[in-house]
Amino acid sequence: MIRFLLHSAFFLDNLILIDPHDGGSIGLPRPEVKAPLVLITHNHYDHNAYEIIPHETVKVRFYGEFNYKNYTIQGLKSYHDKEKGKRRGETAIYKITSPDGRVYVHLGDLGHMLDEKTVEELKNPDYLMVPVGGVITISPSEALQVIKDLNPKIVFPMHYWVKGHYMPLEPIGPFLELANKEGIKTVPLPKNEVNEESVEKGTVIYYSNLA
């Protein structure tokens, strides 16, 4: 099960929380979960609020590989901009493989296109979490190209403007328009919780009550 907690925060299988925000500092509801493992892609205020989350273990901008309760977590180095981090620093990409073989990829605040080596490492995941709001990450059109390169079964857009959000990001609309032009199915869901098995493969999932 995947729960989207707004911005870039996702809770996987009631076990792994990625990039929690504190809610108030970005104008969104605070995540209310208990997470045994918290993964932080980079140490920016809208991604690193693990102190407010009851947790056991935290990894901040982790590069390498480790195992946690039969999940394999890989952290790959990427950058928050197109200048190898000179403007906004580094950000980790997390590839998470569950005990039953499902693969989740969370791209963090990716600010550049992926090189061939990274594409090879990440391609064909079951679930891809990709920033689509531009401004300080890849643009909607770049996000679409990353999706094509990685060929995920299901896509979860993230890091875009929603009502109440303080950050000047683009809303999800431009990305959805591009996806629809490419013939990619986009599905609005009325709540933030997804049972992946009920979702058609090759689908972009977004949340209609947030856009």
From TrEMBL:
Q: Name one GO molecular function term.
A: hydrolase activity
TM region positions: none
Keyword Glycosyltransferase appears in the UniProt entry: no
> Gene3D superfamilies from the entry?
Ribonuclease Z/Hydroxyacylglutathione hydrolase-like (3.60.15.10)
Q: Which domain of life does the protein's organism represent?
A: Archaea
| SUPFAM superfamilies assigned | Metallo-hydrolase/oxidoreductase (SSF56281)
Give UniProt keywords alphabetically. Answer: Hydrolase
Query: What PANTHER family does this protein map onto?
Result: MBL FOLD METALLO-HYDROLASE, METAL DEPENDENT HYDROLASE
Q: What is this protein called?
A: Hydrolase
User: Where does this protein come from, organism-wise?
Assistant: Stygiolobus caldivivus
